[in-house]
């Protein structure tokens, strides 16, 4: 694999055609950019800017990002999935056997900084045009670019920097907001500095964005939903509650009923989808490398299905508190051999359903990625309200807990943070949330290693996230080679 470092990346890609991120299909755009070869002057019209924001959205679905690896990473490390073997791909996520010199970990760094470069160029182009007195309205696209940059920095700092809630003065990632000069060697900012920029980008972007739902793109409410997620990660409960309630109370989205929930995965851009990335056959469909393959039973309707990760005994016990929970409808038997006991740990969210019908496209692997759903806003609101208003917290939690009709509703006297986390685990299973929740709350994680009897050497069965260095990834060695100043800033344990 070709090594790309951030210093060279911000320079080399300045001359790359932004149409490469999409297929130039008329389904997405009616006009090619007037100058797609020079990033410094690529945007001359609103149509040009739309090409570029479309490319950023498509790039976020790459294999190293939301298309697969980022979501698998956050599940494999959170204790609610397990594995029978370490040999089917992305096994280092589960056993924490990371190395600065090897992939796939380095793909996160390269891919996200690639997209940040594109966002930085788009932001600069638009601001230059606005300063020159353009009559075209670029505000919405500028707001999307700022929000996308904030999302990518948020994800990067959670991968390479320790949690804000107990380690905000430690190293995060380089904060680069402009295209770099060839001689630049950006060093790491602190976690706090990263979060300050993330919050600034989100805050600056919000008033620029349309409140109209735009499938596959970012609108005002997607920005607010991300503000809620970021604030929660910072332990800013008032900010998280305010942002989540604005989305909930807007009426722009509606929660799935129990009868709708299972079928919602067979549909694109449903009533709960606040930010959903489009996966398109023959364009960005990852096929046998897709999320669906990693979570699907290995030999079920697809010889290529890896069956790498599936619900741990701990997760299944949590979901099994109510056999009538509607979320069982997206779970399938993960047995490799008929002689094994039934184990309903296979997730079919990214296959549409257990019949692998997809979400209305020609293939069952090109299922859209639901980055932020309304259900998460209720769960954030419940957690954020808990310290000050347990009645409100219980009411928000019960909007999601009702998916388990056999369980008693939460009340102001029974609701706890663990009850909220358990509900979030059940609702957002395999959606890339669990590990980051455990990190920000400083909770120990216990892994279901004994299920498959896989040999684990890089961690213990239970890890204390407040003391275990390898809760974050190493800075890639290729990046250190190109930017030697980062050597002194390498994460401990590497």
Outline:
globular
Sheet bearing the most strands, described?
Answer: 2 strands, antiparallel
Number of helices: 19
Q: For this entry, what is the oligomeric state of its chains? A: single chain
Low-confidence stretches: 7-37
N-to-C SSE series? HHHEHHHHHHHHEHEHEEEHHHHEHEH
How many strands?
Answer: 8
- What is the count of distinct domains? 2
Could you tell me the strand content as a percent range? under 5%
What does the average pLDDT come to? 90
* Helix content estimate: 40-55%
Rg on CA atoms, Å: 22 Å
What CATH first level of the largest domain would be assigned?
Answer: Mainly Alpha
How many angstroms separate the termini?
Answer: 22 Å
Q: What is the structural class?
A: mainly alpha
Q: In the CATH classification, which architecture of the largest domain applies?
A: Alpha Horseshoe
CATH topology of the largest domain: Serine Threonine Protein Phosphatase 5, Tetratricopeptide repeat
Strand line-up across the major sheet: 1-3
């Amino acid at each position: 694999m070709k090594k790309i470092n951030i210093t060279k990346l911000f320079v080399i890609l300045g001359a790359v055609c932004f149409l490469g991120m999409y297929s130039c299909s008329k389904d997405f755009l009616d006009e090619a950019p007037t100058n797609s070869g020079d990033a410094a002057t690529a945007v001359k019209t609103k149509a040009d800017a739309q090409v570029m924001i479309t490319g950023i959205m498509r790039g976020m679905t790459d294999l190293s990002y939301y298309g697969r690896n980022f979501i698998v990473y956050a599940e494999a490390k959170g204790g609610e999935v397990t594995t029978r073997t370490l040999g089917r791909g992305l096994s280092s996520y589960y056993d924490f056997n990371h190395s600065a010199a090897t992939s796939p970990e380095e793909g996160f760094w390269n891919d996200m900084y690639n997209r940040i470069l594109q966002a930085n160029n788009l932001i600069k182009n638009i601001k230059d045009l606005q300063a020159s007195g353009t009559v075209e309205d670029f505000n919405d696209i500028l707001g999307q670019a700022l929000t996308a940059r904030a999302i990518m920095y948020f994800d990067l700092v959670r991968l390479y920097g320790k949690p804000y809630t107990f380690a905000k003065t430690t190293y995060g990632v380089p904060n680069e907001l402009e295209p770099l000069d060839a001689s630049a060697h950006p060093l790491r900012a602190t976690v706090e500095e990263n979060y300050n920029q993330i919050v600034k980008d989100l805050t600056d972007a919000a008033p620029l964005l349309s409140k109209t739902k735009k499938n596959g793109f970012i609108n005002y409410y997607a920005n607010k939903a991300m503000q809620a997620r970021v604030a929660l990660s910072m332990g800013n409960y008032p900010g998280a509650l305010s942002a989540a309630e604005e989305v909930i109370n807007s009426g722009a989205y509606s929660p799935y009923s129990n009868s709708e929930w299972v079928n919602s995965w067979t549909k694109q851009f449903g009533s709960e989808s606040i930010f959903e990335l489009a996966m398109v056959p023959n364009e960005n469909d990852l096929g046998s490398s897709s999320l669906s393959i990693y979570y699907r039973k290995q030999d079920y309707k697809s010889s290529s299905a890896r069956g790498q990760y599936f619900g741990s005994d701990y997760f299944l016990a949590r979901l099994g508190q109510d056999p009538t929970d509607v979320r069982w409808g997206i779970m399938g038997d993960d047995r490799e051999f008929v002689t094994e006991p039934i184990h309903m740990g296979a997730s079919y969210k990214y296959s549409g359903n257990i019949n692998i019908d997809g979400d209305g496209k020609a293939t069952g692997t090109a299922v859209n990625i639901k980055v932020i759903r309304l259900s998460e806003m209720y769960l954030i609101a419940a957690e954020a309200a808990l310290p000050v208003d347990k009645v409100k917290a219980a009411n928000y939690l019960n909007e999601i807990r009702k998916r388990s009709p056999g369980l008693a509703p939460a009340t102001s006297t029974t609701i706890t943070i663990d009850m909220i986390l358990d509900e979030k685990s059940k609702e957002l299973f395999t959606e890339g949330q669990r590990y980051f929740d455990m990190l920000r709350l400083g909770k120990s994680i216990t892994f279901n290693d004994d299920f498959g009897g896989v040999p684990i050497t890089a961690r213990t069965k239970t890890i204390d996230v407040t003391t275990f260095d390898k809760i974050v990834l190493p800075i890639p060695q290729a990046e250190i080679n190109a930017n030697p100043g980062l050597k002194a800033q390498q994460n401990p344990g590497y």
